[in-house]
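pasting for ref
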Amino acid sequence: MLDKDELNEYVLMANALRFLCADMVQNANSGHPGAPMGLADIAVVLGLHIKLNPKNPQWINRDRLVFSGGHASALVYSLLHLWGFEITLEDLKDFRKLNSKTPGHPEYKHTPGVEITTGPLGQGVANAVGFAMAGKLAQNMLGEELINHKVYCLCGDGDLEEGISYEAASLAGHHCLNNLILIYDSNNITIEGDCCVAMSENVKARFEAQNWEVLSIDGHNFIEIDTALEKAKNATKPVLIIARTQIAKGSQSLCGSHKAHGAPLGVEEICISKESLGFNPKEQFFIPPSSRIRFKNTAESGELANLEWNKAFAKSSKKSLLEEMLKPDFSKIIYPSFEEQKKQGKTIATRASNGMILNAIAQALPGFVGGSADLAPSNNTELKGKGDFPRGNNFHFGIREHAMGAISNAISNYGLFLPFCATFFVFSDYLAPSVRVASLMQSKVFYIWTHDSIGVGEDGATHEPIEQLSHFRSMPNLNVFRPCDAFENIACWQVAFAIEGPCAFVLSRQNLPILESVSQENVSKGAYLKCSSKLDAQNPKITLLASGSEVELALKSADKLEEEEIATQVVSAPSYDLFLKTSKEYQDSLLKGKVIAIEASRALEWFVFANEVIGMSGFGASGKGEELFKHFGFSVENVVRIAKYRLG
């Protein structure tokens, strides 16, 4: 709580914070001074409320702080330094330099104390909702004595203009997430000038309509800030604090100007501004000793709270469950057996076998959670008997793919859960910004993308993914799996649990035959020999390389080619990404003779390995799936024709 008798000291702290940020941006000759300077008063008071322990930054019951506007990074790093995280004054001086701890926008796992990489505007609002959802579920699983933290998020006008924030706020209000406090830096400024050029809505009414409690304050009045935060901590709904602020507060000439958003203030302007507020204009990166001591109080109170929590943890009946969630044991998973279905000649879509696998995982891992964008019956993602959020493991994201992706990123970073999220593969485009950020962070998120090709059929070109496989395979750190059957699906999950970073499962709507079982080791290489040539196993003339549903086509085509005395082998490639990482020797050992890749997508990436690619050159069409495959050249006759052509 704020001591009203010491307001002058808080003013000094805020001004010191302003000029520390301005000096960082000026020293780098690059960056955004306006938002950090405008938020300095709020940041000082927030330090009196937030519960963090820099000595134990992964303490599970810490408050989460999200800066949705990553352009306020100078403020993020300054606070982390002053609160006692492993950010030195030299790190602040290295702001925006190569290999520094203080890059232009905050990055998770790169800078101690940064909870999540927010990246594009609006992502952080949805991330905060994800942290709050994770916190609420953790509280219901582990008890309020172990989980009782808050989630704070600072956002700006740009964040609330992005549609993802609307989706996320809607879900937060629906679930009455009273552990979520969103502080809106309402300075009415964007890069192009005053917000009125593009925005005139009533933000208060918007959030109230979404079941939020809304408080309006002067963002430079310490008492109003403190009172609002105290009220927000005891609310029964998520809280939006609309803080009216001035961008670049403290600057003599640029306060309130959009020119202060994305460029240094200038040496002269900083000197004049410092002098006007009683600071030595010749001193840079200066924090008054009394202010530095007060900033450290945040760490001291957080360390004390952590010690008290340790006592509660030692006595808790949920201790073993928490430990199990922190370190999941993947060896406990009993995967379904598909041997009987195979013997009976049954076929099963990989979306269906995947649903069985998801349920097996959920039975073994209490922290395995997730859901779909209103598509669980089609995606086969319901975790049976596991209940619904906020008391169960099934999440109903609604038709909100954008927010679903960013929420899942935060659930992963929370530290207790392994989240998945699902939709039709063609709608993965809506998730792309969040998938990109998850890949950048190497966060453990699992994407279930079903209806993976023209096999969707009658729904037509709008619902048939063509270019998405190539897009996501090109994304660094993302591992994309497209299994050909139920057995390969299991092996893909085993590999996914063993590797770092997010993974995507691209799954069929149509039924596929159950082929031979495959080892985790083979799938870990991305591609493996599925069927050798009976005519000449050592020197086949043709290698048919395929993934997913097209492996069946490759096998049938190989049989036909062998009937015509053309030695042919089949290579299944469930993960292009992993295969690309294997040695040249391994790749050459598989890819013999003329290599023809077959995939019902754009498939241009396969030219790295193949002499010929049978893929999609345009969009799909409406019709029965089997007819579309034939229409677009995915038939035994066409594969045989192209193989013969390649052999001359």
